Amino acid sequence: ARLVVLVSGSGTNLQALLDACADPAYGAVVVAVGADRDGIEGLARAERAGLPTFVHRVRDHATREEWDAAVTASCQAHQPDLVVSAGFMKLAGEVFLTAFAGRYLNTHPALLPSFPGMHGARDALEHGVKVTGATLFVVDPGVDTGPIVAQAVVPVEDDDDVASLHERIKAAERGMLVEHVGRMAREGFVVDGRRVRIGR
Ligand code: GRF
């Protein structure tokens, strides 16, 4: 399976995928990396891996729709089977979601449907939950509402701050992402209403 990965930050999830894809038995390859901003470690990781990259900044486009169309076209140019948002901090628009319906995956640093949005780790900490985690899901038009592929649970420790909790979540998130993207690539998957089943 061909993967295009979208990033906005440090790209540790991207790196985990790149490392996994180095083994042909993994069944997937990252063919390009896209971003919504310059100068991020995620893009540097892609460049070090010798991968093509593209950057579309919202502010360089007249409208959000034009930005969305540009991201869609750049992804399509690499003919991905799956597009993976690995810390891509922008909501895809209608054109993108139509082009990649059922094939656009995102990871979120909380156990959805709890704590959707930009601050999953902070919101879980502030709520006082004792376990949180990460969720891999198929993106739909809502915010962090799509059908769930996998979840990983992590404990919240008494002395956690947002940074320590998010780091623990991200360690679990990377393992979950690598395991399930690989299985989806090798075995296929079906989205049946709200349920996602891996395997044919
Ligand atoms: C991940 O926790 C992702 O879920 C969140 O931002 C983080 C991205 O980390 N939205 P990285 O760029 O993959 O290191």
From TrEMBL:
Residues 2-180 form the Formyl transferase N-terminal domain. The active site is at residue 108. This is Phosphoribosylglycinamide formyltransferase. HAMAP family: PurN (MF_01930). The record marks 144 as: Raises pKa of active site His. Keywords: Purine biosynthesis, Transferase. It comes from the Bacteria. (6R)-10-formyltetrahydrofolate binds at residues 64, 106. GO terms for molecular function: phosphoribosylglycinamide formyltransferase activity. Belongs to the GART family. N(1)-(5-phospho-beta-D-ribosyl)glycinamide binds at residues 11-13. Its EC number is 2.1.2.2. InterPro entries: Formyl_transf_N (IPR002376), Formyl_transf_N_sf (IPR036477), GART (IPR004607). Pathway: Purine metabolism; IMP biosynthesis via de novo pathway; N(2)-formyl-N(1)-(5-phospho-D-ribosyl)glycinamide from N(1)-(5-phospho-D-ribosyl)glycinamide (10-formyl THF route): step 1/1. Catalyzes the transfer of a formyl group from 10-formyltetrahydrofolate to 5-phospho-ribosyl-glycinamide (GAR), producing 5-phospho-ribosyl-N-formylglycinamide (FGAR) and tetrahydrofolate. It catalyses: N(1)-(5-phospho-beta-D-ribosyl)glycinamide + (6R)-10-formyltetrahydrofolate = N(2)-formyl-N(1)-(5-phospho-beta-D-ribosyl)glycinamide + (6S)-5,6,7,8-tetrahydrofolate + H(+).
